[in-house]
Amino acid sequence: MKIAVIGHVRFPIARPFMGGMEAHCWHLCRGLRARGHDVTLFAAGDSDWGGKVEPVVDVHYDQEFPWHKWHGTPELTGHLDTAFERILPRLTEGGFDVVHNNSLHRFPPRFAARHRIPMVTSLHVPPFDVLKRAVADGGAPWSLFTTCSQRQLGAWFDDGDAPFARVVPNGIDLADWPFRPKGDGSAVWMGRITPTKGTHLAAQAAKIAGVPLRIYGTTEDQGYFDTEIVPLLGEGVQYGGHLQGADLTDAIARASVLLFTPLWDEPFGLAAIEAMACGLPIAAVENGAIREVAGDVARYAGADAGELGEALREAIGIPRRAARERVEGLFTLELMLEEYEALYGRAVERVGHGFELPSFEAYELPPTEYAWSQGL
C-alpha cells in the first residue's frame, strides 16, 4: 500500500525522541516500510526517520512557539491551521491508498469524512474540546480511530458508542530492548522532565526507599528542573542526561526497577513497556492506563512519595522474566502493525459504501481566520 503518515509537529520525528508520540510515529513508519509498504511522512521538516518526509512546517513548532508559552493562543493556532490547510490537498493528490493520522490537529478527521479519504486517526492523548468535536464529526466507515488503551477509548467516546474506534495498544521492537536477567539493585526513571511526568516524585520516593536512582530524559521545563529536581540530586539520585539508542537501552536494562510517575491521565506509558521488555518491574503512580499496561508486574501507589517508596521496595522483588513475557504477549511492534494493517484494509474497503455523515456545516478548507473564529 501507499501510505501517508501524518506526525504531530510539536517536535521532530527523529532520534533522540522527545517523547512517546515521536517514538511511536518513527517506529510506525519504519515498521510499515519493512512490511513492504511505500511510506511518506508528513511532519516537521527537521524530522528524520530514514525515508520520505513532506514538511507540514519547516521546523517543529516548539522551536518557534514553545508550547508552555503559546498553547491555546491565536498565534500558534493560526500557524498550525495554515500548515494543515496546505497539506490536506497533498493527501488527495498524492495517490495514497490510506492515511494514518497521528497529528492531533482537528482538520484531518473532518477532511477524511467529507472527502471520503481512507484514514486511521490515532488518539495519543486525553480528549480536549476542539479535537473531540472533530472526532465526533469525523467518524465514518472509512474514517476510523484508535486509542492506545481501553481507558482512553472510554474518555474519547464517553457514551460508550464507538462504532468507528478500537483499542490498538502501542508496540515496541523487542530487538531494541533486549532482556537482561539481572539488575544492579538501582531504580531508573525516563521521560520528558516536566511537572506532569512527576520526576520529582520519583526522586523523593527513591530517597525514602533507600534505592539509588538514575534519571534520564530531556528537560522540557527548565524552571521545573532547576527548582524541583536539582535540589534532589546527590545522595543516591543522579541525572544521566538525554540518552538515545543503545546507550539508553543499556542504562535502563542495568537497573532493577522503573519508577513511573504520571501526574496526569497518562494514555498508555511507552516507557513502561520499554523497561519491562528489558526485565524491569514497575513502581507506578496509578494514573491513566498504567494498570492496563503493567498488570501484575507492577506495584501501585497514589501521588505520595511515601506510598511510592513502599511500592518501589515491593516491586524490586517481581521476577524480571514476568515483565518481559507480558511485553512479548501484548505489546510488540508486530502486533501493533498487524492491527493497523487490518484497519487500513477496512477503511479502504468501505470508502465506497453508502453512509450518511452526521449533520454539521460542510467542511471545506477555511481560511485561517475563519477556522479560528469558528473553532473548527
Describe the protein's topology:
Layout: E1 2-6, H1 20-34, E2 38-43, E3 52-55, H2 61-64, H3 67-70, H4 74-93, E4 98-101, H5 107-115, E5 119-123, H6 129-138, E6 143-147, H7 150-156, E7 165-167, E8 187-190, H8 199-209, E9 213-216, H9 222-229, E10 237-239, H10 245-253, E11 257-260, H11 270-278, E12 282-285, H12 290-294, E13 298-301, H13 305-315, H14 320-330, H15 333-349, H16 368-374
Parallel strand pairs: 1-2, 1-4, 2-3, 4-5, 5-6, 6-7, 8-9, 8-11, 9-10, 11-12, 12-13
Describe the structure.
- With 376 residues, this protein is α/β, with parallel strands linked by helices.
- The protein has 2 domains: 2-171 and 333-374, Glycogen Phosphorylase B (Rossmann fold), CATH 3.40.50; 174-329, Glycogen Phosphorylase B (Rossmann fold, 3-Layer(aba) Sandwich), CATH 3.40.50.
- Helix content is 42%, strand content 15%.
- It has 16 helices and 13 strands.
- It has helices at residues 20-34, 61-64, 67-70, 74-93, 107-115, 129-138, 150-156, 199-209, 222-229, 245-253, 270-278, 290-294, 305-315, 320-330, 333-349, 368-374, and strands at residues 2-6, 38-43, 52-55, 98-101, 119-123, 143-147, 165-167, 187-190, 213-216, 237-239, 257-260, 282-285, 298-301.
- Strands 3-2-1-4-5-6-7 form a 7-stranded parallel sheet. The protein has a 6-stranded parallel sheet with strand order 10-9-8-11-12-13, sandwiched between helices.
- α9 (222-229) links the parallel β9 and β10 (237-239).
- It starts with a strand and ends with a helix.
- The model is unreliable at 360-376 (pLDDT under 50).
